[in-house]
Design brief:
Blueprint: E1 2-18, E2 21-35, E3 38-44, H1 56-70, H2 78-88, H3 92-110, H4 114-117, E4 129-132, H5 137-151, E5 155-159, H6 166-179, E6 185-189, H7 196-208, E7 214-215, H8 223-232, E8 237-239, H9 249-252, E9 258-261, H10 263-266, H11 269-281, E10 285-288, H12 295-302, E11 310-311, E12 324-325, E13 328-330, E14 333-335, E15 345-346
Helix pairs in contact: 1-3, 5-6, 7-8
Family: Belongs to the mandelate racemase/muconate lactonizing enzyme family.
InterPro entries: DgoD-like, Dipeptide_epimerase, Enolase-like_C_sf, Enolase-like_N, Enolase_C-like, Mandel_Rmase/mucon_lact_enz_CS, Mandelate_racemase_C, Mandelate_racemase_N_dom
Keywords: Isomerase, Magnesium, Metal-binding
Length: 350
């Protein structure tokens, strides 16, 4: 098989501010795996958790370096391919890009969409949330109006953990409640921006505001404190940065209610499926989320979304110039199509 690697840059319609900073554009990596006159597509999106960022340059370089070792193999040689990837110690984002491309190739070879190969039911897909970043209250209100006009969203994920403290978080949330329709569900993602004391206070206050759950209230590395929060929070707790792969799940199962699976963290759809089964075996709920992912990656995640309790696959909806189309937004739900593989096609926005 032949492997092609190139990069592309996308720009956000609304710059996104979280507890760790603001993002207005990203450069992602597009991977194409070619064999038997079929091309499978994958994508690597840069992200950062803690002190080990996975950059665009590193992802592209790793993929280019591994390509010669993979070329003698066929996309169906998955065990042999996996051994090569493990020996190369690829980053999770580079591994994900290849895994997704290989599964896209497989679906096209079988002439079936991946969700159909896995026997999933699109009717089970819940609405995806759209994200409101940390902003002054009046800006946050305008973002809500913009998103509702753009997507008719059924759910809002609000980023809290403001560097100005929980008073600023509360002011922003109250402002959002003033303009959000009552039927729109609200969830919170603090991105590790709270102390344990503030997380306990906010969980109790947010429950009174009708919020559905809290994501990553404490920073990665404070997993021991999650148990104390779990015992006192009236709201379900989900983790994101604290959970990368299926190996992380059992140790968290007594202190959280669910996990956020992101393809860049997990290393692709194959590990994401393992995470789903591991989490369910531990009695946990499932969420699928995204970074600065284009329509290619969110369409890939949508293939597994019938297995999720919550979805946050909105990053491509916030792009001015996303080059890929695939899953479509219908009544607030991101639905994969009937095309084989991922069902993604190249359609640059002007």
């Amino acid at each position: 098989m032949r492997i092609h690697v190139e990069t592309f840059t996308v720009h956000k319609r609304f710059p996104l501010t979280i507890s760790r900073g603001t993002t207005a554009q990203t450069t992602n990596v597009w991977v194409r795996v070619e064999a038997d006159a079929i091309e499978g597509w994958g994508e690597g999106s840069p992200f950062s958790v803690g002190e080990t960022p996975q950059t665009t340059e590193a992802i592209a370089q790793q993929l280019q370096q591994i390509a010669p070792a993979l070329e003698p193999l066929h996309p169906l040689d998955r065990q042999r391919i996996e051994r090569v990837l493990q020996e190369a110690q690829l980053s999770s984002a580079a591994h994900a890009a290849l895994d997704i491309a290989l599964l896209d190739w497989l679906g096209q070879k079988a002439q079936l969409p991946l969700w159909r190969i896995w026997g999933l039911n699109r009717d089970r897909i819940v609405p995806t949330s759209v994200t409101i970043g940390i902003n002054p209250p009046e800006v946050a209100q305008q973002r809500v109006k913009d998103w509702l006009q753009l997507t008719c969203a059924k759910a809002l994920k609000v980023k809290l953990g403001s560097p100005d403290g929980i008073a600023a978080d509360q002011a922003m949330l109250l402002a959002i409640r003033e303009v959000a329709p009552p039927q729109v569900k609200l969830s919170i993602d603090a991105n590790g921006g709270w102390s344990l004391t503030d997380a306990i206070k906010m969980s109790q206050w947010l429950e009174q505001q009708g919020v559905t759950y809290i994501e990553q209230p404490l920073r990665r590395g404070q997993e021991q404190d999650l148990l104390k929060l779990y015992e006192r929070s009236p709201l379900p707790i989900f983790v994101d940065e604290s959970c990368f792969t299926s190996r992380d799940i059992p140790a968290l199962s007594d202190r959280v209610h669910g996990i956020n699976i992101k393809l860049m963290k997990s290393g692709g759809l194959s590990e994401a499926m393992r995470m789903v089964h591991t989490a369910r075996a531990c009695g946990l709920q499932i969420m699928f989320g995204c970074y600065s992912d284009s329509g290619l990656l969110n369409t890939a995640a949508a293939q597994l979304s019938p297995l999720a309790d919550h979805l946050d696959l909105d990053s491509h909806l916030n792009l001015l110039d996303g080059p890929f189309s695939g899953a479509s937004l219908q009544d607030g739900r991101l639905l994969p199509n009937d095309l084989p593989g991922l069902g993604v096609y190249y359609a640059p926005q002007s």
